[in-house]
Design a protein that fits this description.
Elements: E1 3-7, E2 10-15, E3 20-24, E4 35-41, E5 46-51, E6 56-60, E7 65-68, E8 81-87, E9 90-95, E10 98-103, E11 108-114, E12 119-125, E13 128-133, E14 136-141, E15 153-156, E16 160-166, E17 169-174, E18 179-182, E19 189-191
Antiparallel strand pairs: 1-2, 2-3, 4-5, 5-6, 6-7, 8-9, 9-10, 10-11, 12-13, 13-14, 14-15, 16-17, 17-18, 18-19
Length: 196
C-alpha cells in the first residue's frame, strides 16, 4: 500500500511494489500550494488535500487529481481552514466562517453551518455534531435542521483547539495543551493525566 507524506507544499508517495518515491506538487498537477490539512477517504480511495485558502484536491489511488474550487471562490471573502476530519465519505472542514461538510463521493458541499465566528474543531459523536468555536462549544442534533442557527445549542464557554472521541467519550485538547474529557450533557470537564 502506498504511503503518502506531506512536506513543504508537496506530496511524496512511496510505492512499495516498485520501491518508487514519487513527488506531486503544483507543477505536477496539484491545484494550489500551502496545504493546511490532509486526510484519507477510505470509501473513495482518495487523499483529501485542503489548502489554507479553501481550495480542495482529491488525489485518487490511480494518481488522478480532482480540483474543487467552490470554497476558495465563494465570493464572500477569504476562507481559512483550521481542521479537517474525514468520516465515511464526508469531510468536515472547520473554518473561519463555520463548519463546511464536503461530500467526497459526490464532490460537492453538502452543508455549511455558519457560526459567524472561528470554528477550531468539530467532532461527530453519536447523533450529534459538536463544534468548538471562538465563543465556546455548540452542539447540534443530526435530526434537526442545523442550517437554522437556533437549532445549535451552546453548552460551554470553554474553547478547545481540537475535539475528538476517546475511549467512547467526548474529549478535547485545550489551548493550554491539556486533554480533558467532556460530559456531553453537563459540559463538566475532567482532566486526563498521562499516567492514568
Amino acid at each position: 500500500r502506498d504511503t503518502v507524506v506531506l512536506s513543504d507544499g508537496a506530496i511524496y508517495l512511496y510505492d512499495p511494489s516498485d520501491n518508487g518515491l514519487y513527488t506531486i506538487d503544483k507543477t505536477g498537477g496539484l491545484g494550489d500550494t500551502d496545504i493546511a490539512a490532509m486526510g484519507y477517504c477510505n470509501s473513495e480511495q482518495a487523499v483529501i488535500l485542503v489548502y489554507s485558502n479553501g481550495n480542495i484536491d482529491l488525489l485518487y489511488n490511480d494518481f488522478t487529481i480532482y480540483n474543487f474550487t467552490d470554497i476558495k471562490n465563494n465570493g464572500t471573502g477569504s476562507v481559512s481552514v483550521n481542521e479537517l476530519k474525514v468520516i465515511a465519505d464526508k469531510a468536515y472542514l472547520s473554518t473561519n466562517i463555520g463548519l463546511i461538510v464536503f461530500d467526497v463521493k459526490r464532490r460537492e458541499i453538502s452543508n455549511t453551518y455558519r457560526f459567524d465566528t472561528q470554528v477550531y474543531s468539530s467532532v461527530v459523536f453519536n447523533d450529534t455534531i459538536i463544534c468548538s468555536t471562538d465563543s465556546g462549544m455548540y452542539l447540534g442534533l443530526d435530526s434537526d435542521n442545523l442550517l437554522d442557527k437556533n437549532k445549535w445549542k451552546k453548552f460551554s464557554d470553554i474553547r478547545f483547539r481540537t475535539l475528538f472521541e476517546f475511549d467512547g467519550q467526548l474529549a478535547g485538547n485545550s489551548f493550554i495543551n491539556r486533554i480533558w474529557t467532556i460530559d456531553r450533557n453537563t459540559a463538566a470537564l475532567q482532566e486526563k493525566i498521562k499516567d492514568d
